[in-house]
Specification:
about 45% helix, disordered N terminus, about 325 residues, 6-stranded mixed beta sheet, alpha/beta, 2 domains, D-Maltodextrin-Binding Protein, domain 2, 11 helices, globular, 11 strands
Length: about 325
Amino acid sequence: MKSYRFVTGAVVGVLTSATMMMAAQAAEYPAKSIELIVPYAAGGGTDLVARAYADAVNRHLPQSVGVVNKTGGGGAVGLSEIMAARPDGYKIGMGTVEITTLPNLGVARFTVADFTPIARLNAEPSAITVNASAPWKTIEEFLAYAKENPGKARIGNSGTGAIWHLAAEALASKTGLKFNHVPYDGANPAVTALLGNHIEAVSVSPAEVSSHVAAGTLRILAVMDDQRSKAFPDAPTLKEKGIDVTVATWRGIVVPKKTPENVVNTLRAASKKAVEEQGFRDQLNKMNLSYAYLDGPDYKVAMEKDAEMFKALMKQIGLAK
């Protein structure tokens, strides 16, 4: 019995010491460099946003933030690493909309609740885009064609279960129309297919078709956002047309749950200063990406809303596992 009491006391002492050490480390945060995990390959949109953020936030923290790419599983590998990281603020990550979709596909064990949002940096809505030579000049004309020809209108997306596939499915669900959803290995191949008139439309973001729209080879009919795109102000929102569908991909900074409050607040404050820099916004503009900052609490609300919406949608279309 005495031995039992001794071991128990020792364990409590060790745990208390560890807790005190973590509290002390949190109090002086950051005392060393910070790793920013990007769940996608270098050179992609998420990676470029992360690097623009790191450049800006490094001017507002006493220690450097460095980008590390951890790819695989459509984002599941990197996001899982962020979730499982020690909650001390030294391994943070780029949280993307896939936090709300991958769990429904059965390829990830995390949920929105496993992350503490710091700041949303960017968001890109889905847009219905057609070839400039197509007969449809408005979204109403395109939807009328789809109604008259069920399953004939082919909409290219970035892969089954990916965000742009879900965007087109959301449009189909809301309008009661039937489209032929054609998956490609990313947005660029889908756009290439549209340029070749192999499909009738794509549901990718305006940023991913911007150069072709500027060249006059593609036409955006509508965007799935609450407001019109600043880059393409002539394209109406679906909401303007009486279709209540808002679907977007987004990117922002997240940390593991249970990260100490003062660490979270330090990152929130530094992130706010970083995104207010004109240089950060200029970097997004160069990439045709939208500035869409939300502070942590508002970012959390947006993430939870998307999680509920995608769970219901993916169950409805038979993708939920």
